[in-house]
Amino acid sequence: MILADKIIENRKKNGWSQEELAEKLGVSRQSVSKWESAQAVPDMKKILQLAEIFNVSTDYLLKDDIEDIERPEGAVYNDDYEEETLRKVSMEEANAFLTHNEKAARQISTGVMLCILSPVLVTVLGGFAEAGRGPIDEWSAGILGVVVLFIMIACAVGLFLISAFRGSKYEYLDKVNIDTEYGVSGMAKERRNAYSEKHTRLLVVGILLCVISAVPMFIYEFLLHYHHDDGSLEALGVGILLITVAIGVKMIVLTCIRQGGYDRLLEEGDYTRINKRAGKYDGIYWAIAIAIYLGWSFVTMRWEMTWIVWPVAGVLFAAYREIMKAVMKSR
Is 132 left (phi over 0), alpha (psi -120 to 50) or beta? Predict the structure, then answer.
């Protein structure tokens, strides 16, 4: 019996999936898959780890003529364990997905930016019109601003729907366990490594823009202490705040979706198999976040404040995911 078969046999006897064994060894699931299909051989350090994890000797693992081994005392085996069904992903399909993911990243990030920018015109025009400084009266400014707001939201929803429709054939990457054909993992890792520096740069700049977006309002409060404001300066500050946040959030969403594409193919990061099971209800979570954002915004018309829903939702999402992972692991 060759090493590949021994890894499969001992993994199944312990009732572990490839991902669970990979976690114990500190490697990717694809590495375990390649060992078990004899496409690659673990190095000596991993051989020693395998021997320790399986509670067998290295001789047993390395020598093909040693086939039988006594079960370690106290070990728990699952002889009824059935190998999981994996969805094959070819190189052609992987490249097509990454091409789609690039387009989806631009569409979704632009849609999110439009949602944040949508109240800018109604806020700025309304503020200047109320102060008597606008080119049109207050009523006209309100109507024009609301019309533009709905148009921008409609465009954003259109982008979301187009992206979702075109990406529907790749939904399995988020839902089922996959097995990439030879060369796919290497290609995805190479492209992810090449993109990692740009990912970090976009993420840092996006976060910094969100942080400094409040600066115009601090400046406004400072000036208000010394000068009376008729409302136009505050409206301008809110507009600049929303524009800055919109650009920052677009960068964050854009780069996270791009990075997520590589992680999907590698089943790493947020797309490990346990995370796929934990992410079963992610759509409901974000639907609730959108409902809260739009409901709060339209009821209060405080668009300069309601954008805070998104960073809060992002922070809470991390906690939500950890809770879901714990629930899935306990099943």
Answer: left
Structure tokens at 185: 């993992």
User: By the 8 A CB rule, do 67 and 82 touch?
Assistant: no
Give the architecture-level CATH label for domain 3-62: Orthogonal Bundle (1.10)
Closest CA to 84 of 138, 24, 134, 11: 11
Position 145: which residue type?
G
Distance CA(272)–CA(330), nearest Å, equals 17
Residue that is written with structure tokens 């309002």 in the block: 217
Q: How many CB atoms lie within 10 A of CB 239?
A: 23
For residue 38, the SS3 value is: coil
List C-alpha distances in Å: 148 to 35, 145, 288, 297: 57, 5, 25, 16
DSSP 173: H
Tens digits of per-residue pLDDT, 166-198? 988 988 887 777 877 778 888 888 999 999 999
Long-range contacts, stretch 27-30, CB < 8 angstroms, 24+ apart: 28/185, 28/266, 28/267, 28/268, 29/267, 29/272, 29/273, 30/180, 30/185, 30/266, 30/267
Inter-CA distances, 264 with 33, 57, 126, 236, Å: 16, 35, 45, 42
pLDDT mean for each 10 residues of the chain (331 residues): 83 77 84 83 88 86 69 47 67 93 93 89 81 77 88 92 90 79 84 92 92 77 62 76 90 91 82 66 74 82 72 74 69 57
| Residues paired with 88 in a beta bridge | 179
Give the domain ranges of the chain. Answer: 3-62, 95-271
Q: d(Cα 104, Cα 253) in Å, to the nearest integer?
A: 11
Tell me which amino acid residue 21 is: L
Beta-carbon contacts of 258 under 8 Å, excluding residues fewer than 6 positions away, are: 101, 102, 105, 195, 199
Could you give the CA distance from residue 75 to residue 13 in angstroms, rounded to a whole number? 10
